[in-house]
Design a protein that fits this description.
Layout lengths: L2 E10 L2 E10 L10 E7 L6 E4 L1 H9 L3 E2 L1 H9 L2 H13 L4 H146 L1
Parallel strand pairs: 1-5
Antiparallel strand pairs: 1-2, 2-3, 3-4
Length: about 240
């Protein structure tokens, strides 16, 4: 019966996961199989392959034919190389020790290339993250600048108020400085009022003295007139007696 080494699909929709199996070529793709040789996970980068190399070599030596995808996987894991070296040992071109040494050297080189690829992928991922971070910082800086531009009018108003407040304080200080002058003026006004009151009192005293003098003169005149009248009456009385 013809045997094929192929992939059998498993996993979820959109996330396939494959088994590497040796199965009858007439069987369905996901049907019965003769032996499971390993697994293949294409959902990671680089793809994860777990394969039993010795069993795969045995199936190849027994005439199993891999599909194209399975052949690529077997070549990647060194199964085809080991099968080729085993053929050389059978022909006597190589000893088993030489074949194993060559195979191990190839594995070492392969692991180095895989490690380099992983490092390159890690660096690329880190660079992508750094670029995304820088882009995010630029976006945040732009948003902050826009927010600052919106808040600037309010801050200018606050600054204007702060500048006006010292001016008000200065005016109050000027008023405070002017208060002594106003007090001096007030005191001067009070002194002027006192002087005017004193002048008015002097005037009143003068007027009072003048009035008193006039009254005295009038009284003297009236007394003189009364004496004259009395003399006249006396004369008249004397004349009558005569």
């Amino acid at each position: 019966m013809p045997v094929k080494i192929r992939l059998q699909r498993h996993g979820k929709k959109g996330k396939p996961f494959y088994w590497i199996v040796a199965a009858d070529a007439r069987a369905k793709r996901d049907g019965r199989f003769l032996e499971k040789l390993g697994t293949y996970n294409p959902n990671v980068n680089p793809a994860s392959i777990d394969l039993n190399v010795d069993d795969a070599v045995k199936w190849l030596q027994n005439g199993a034919q891999p599909t194209d995808t399975a052949r690529a996987i077997l070549s990647y894991k060194g199964v085809l190389l080991k099968n080729h070296l085993a053929g050389g040992v059978k022909k006597g071109a190589l000893t088993e020790e030489q074949a194993e040494e060559k195979f191990q050297a190839w594995l070492t080189e392969k692991e180095g290339s895989v490690s380099a690829k992983k490092e390159a992928l890690t660096k690329a991922e880190a660079a992508a993250k750094a670029k995304a971070l820088e882009t995010e910082k630029e976006v945040n800086a732009k948003r902050e600048a826009e927010a600052t531009a919106v808040e600037t009018p309010a801050e200018e108003a606050e600054v204007a108020e702060a500048e006006t407040a010292p001016e008000a304080e200065t005016e109050e200080a000027v008023e405070a400085k002017n208060q002594p002058e106003e007090a001096v003026e007030t005191e001067t006004s009070e002194e002027e009022v006192v002087e005017e009151a004193a002048k008015e009192e002097v005037v009143e005293e003068t007027v009072t003295e003048e009035v008193a003098e006039e009254t005295t003169e009038n009284v003297a005149e009236e007394a003189t007139e009364t004496e004259a009248t009395a003399e006249e009456v006396t004369e008249k009385a004397s004349n009558e007696e005569e």
